[in-house]
Amino acid sequence: MGVSNNITAVLNFIALLASIPIIVAGIWLASKPDNECIHNFRWPVVIVGILILLVSLAGFVGAYWNKQGLLALYLFAMAILIAVLLIILVFAFIVTRQDGSYDVPDRGYKEYRLDGFSAWLRNHVTSSGSWDKIRSCLADSNVCIKLTQDYITADQFFSSHISPLQSGCCKPPTVCGYNYVNPILWVNPTNPTGDPDCYLWNNDQNQLCYNCNACKAGLLGNLRQEWRKANIILIVAVVVLIWVYLIACSAFKNAQTEDLFRRYKQGWV
Questions:
Q1: C-beta separation of 99 from 224 below 8 A
Q2: Above 70 in pLDDT, residue 28?
Q3: Is 8 within 8 Å of 254 (Cβ atoms)?
Q4: Residue 12 to residue 74: CA distance in whole angstroms
Q5: Burial of 115: CB neighbours in 10 Å, binned 0-12, 13-18, 19+
Q6: Phi, then psi, of 83 in degrees rounded to 5
Q7: How far apart are CA 143 and CA 26, in angstroms?
Q8: Which residue of 89, 95, 137, 179 has the fewest CB atoms within a 10 Å radius of its CB?
Q9: Are 29 and 230 in contact (CB under 8 A)?
Q10: Measured between alpha carbons, how far is 144 from 167 in angstroms, rounded to an integer?
Q11: Are 11 and 244 in contact (CB under 8 A)?
Q12: pTM, whole model, 2 decimals?
C-alpha cells in the first residue's frame, strides 16, 4: 500500500507541475490588450489552472500521509476539472476555427472581415451592447499609439506585420485609398465609397476606426490568434493530466485492494 501511495504522491506532484503552464497560459491571455477589454475572456483558464493546482496539492497530501478520503475526493474533483478544461479546449477550437483574414496587395499585414468569424464570437463580443464598453477600453489603451513609436515611414509600416487588432482599429481599410501620414494619421481618400468603414475613419486618436466593422473583425482576429497559441499549451497539459489521473486511479485502486487483503489476512474481514 505504501508503494501505491508513493506512486500516487509522485503523480500528483507531476499534475501540480502540469497546472503551472495552464496558469501561465491564462495569465498570458488575460494580459493581452484585447482580453483586458473583454472581461469574460480573461480569467477562466487561470481559474481552472489554480483549481487543478489546489486539487493536485490535496491529492499529494492525501497520498503522502495516506488520507484515503482526501484521495477519493481528489480523484473526483480532478475528473471534473479535466472535463471542464476539455470543454474549454473544444469550445475554443470550434469558435476560433473560422479565420476572417484576407491578404492585401503590397502589404505585410492582413485585413479582416467581420463575417469571416464564427457567429458566436460576433454575437458575444461585437454586439452593440458589448462593443460600446470594448471601444472605450481600446481607445484608452496604447495599442494604436505604440505604432507611431515603431514605424516612421510609409514603407516601414506597409511591410510590417502588425496585429489584427492594430490592422482593424488603428488605420482605415486599404481599399479606401487614404494617404499615409503616420500609422494613425491618414488623409485624402481616393475611394471613400470602397467600404462603409471609409466614412467611419477619424484622425481623432480617441476615435480612429474604433467604430468600424474592421476594428471588430481585428479584435476577433487577435482573440483567434491568442487562443490558438494557448490551446497548444493547454492540449499538452491536458494530455499529461489525463495520463497522471489514469495512473493515479489505478494506484488508488491497488492501494484499496492491498488494504483489503491485509485486513483479510489479519482476520478483520
A1: yes
A2: yes
A3: no
A4: 10
A5: exposed
A6: -65, -45
A7: 20
A8: 179
A9: yes
A10: 9
A11: yes
A12: 0.83
Report d(CA 150, CA 196) in Å as an integer.
Answer: 29
The pLDDT assigned to 92 comes to 87
| Nearest CA among 157, 130, 134, 137 for reference residue 146 | 157
Cβ contacts of 105 within 8 Å, gap of 6 or more = none
What are the residues whose beta carbons fall under 8 Å from the beta carbon of 246, sequence distance 6 or more?
A: none
Task: Please state, in angstroms and rounded to a whole number, the distance separating the CA atoms of residues 21 and 51.
Answer: 13
The helix (run of H) or strand (run of E) holding residue 173 is none
Q: How far apart are CA 28 and CA 153, in angstroms?
A: 31
Q: How many CA atoms lie within 13 A of 231 on its CB side?
A: 18
| pLDDT at residue 88, rounded to an integer | 87
User: What cell numbers appear for 77 in the block?
Assistant: 474533483
DSSP code per residue over 2-25:
HHHHHHHHHHHHHHHHHHHHHHHH
| Percent of the chain with pLDDT strictly greater than 90 | 37
pLDDT in tens, 64-103: 776 777 778 888 888 998 998 899 899 988 988 988 999 9
Beta carbons within 8 Å of 209's beta carbon, 6+ residues apart: 168, 169, 170, 171, 172, 197, 200, 201, 202, 215
Q: Cell for 100?
A: 476572417
Strands 179-182 and 185-187 turn out to be: antiparallel
8 Å CB contact between 117 and 100: yes
Given a cut of 90, whether residue 25 has pLDDT beyond it is: no
Do the beta carbons of residue 121 and residue 84 sit within 8 Å?
Answer: no
